[in-house]
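In response to a reviewer's request, we include the raw inputs and outputs for one of the modeled complexes. The three entities were modeled together in a single run.
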Amino acid sequence: MFTGRSNSLPVAASVSRAILPVRDYDLEATLTSGQVFRWRLRERGWEGVIGTRWVRLAGGRDAIVVEAASPTAVWDGLREYLQLDVDLGAVLAAFPPDAPMRAAIAACRGLRLLRQDPWECLASFVLSSTKQIVQIQQIIALMCERYGQPVAVPPGHAPEFGFPTPERIAACTEAELRGCKAGFRAGYLRATAQRLASGEVHLAGLARLPLAEARGCLMGLPGVGRKVADCVLLFACGFQQAFPIDVWVDRALRQLYFPRRRMSPARLREFSERHFGPYAGYAQQYLFHYMRTMRGGRE
DNA sequence: AACCAGGACACAA
DNA sequence: TTGTGTCATGGT
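The model returned the following structure tokens for the whole complex.
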């Protein structure tokens, strides 16, 4: 048992290992494509925390090597998180066969969508507004360090922490959250955490609602507009039609589909809902990653 | 050194 | 409904 908080770090007795055969799985693209913010590359492996478990993933394409600080390296939650049962070929085949999508597929083949914890995803994207991905990573790392529960790590490994619960964030002062560099987002996050902690809103049931209804529920939370709501719906609730439009995707749509025509945001949204099909969310992620990785990112 | 970042919100007009 | 200012912070 653990006797303290920070001076008795949980250390696993051993590290277990397993190999997951996969097809068309680009770990790097998947973990760095801005859908999740806690994975870090260390000695050719991606280290992160899923729920309460520290995990290290390596390889990709044809096999993923899993190391975990628990008796079993692979558990159901991991398979769900990695979405191993998704047939990527079928997803890509359902994309519209236009030039932009072909280019995006060629550039990002193997990019996947994860199935994340709704609260961690929601909190992450409340913190994401007008922040670069590296800064979002830093804010979240600070919050986990300060307010998350320590998780078991391999012997000799630096301490790692789970994502702070809604209750813990709700108990923070706004100043404490600002201390994690959250800026004006601190108030939003705290207020949203309080709504969840009080039981007014439940994220667990969202996946079973109709898309519009789930979206409406999320958008009722402080700091959650259309874009953040769509991120949560897509990355955590399994709505593969959700199509979050941020500055990059907005730019992708304008440059790749409507060069020199003025399109209002509403018309762009309308187009995105009609054009990209049942896996629109995947298409969106391909466009996002394509735009961010081509030509060094900026324009 | 300006410019911009996986936006939301209150308030115009 | 659509447009503008504001909100922090730091990477590029």
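As requested, we also summarize the result in words. The mean pLDDT of chain A is 94. The CA atoms of residues 58 and 227 of chain A lie 31 Å apart.
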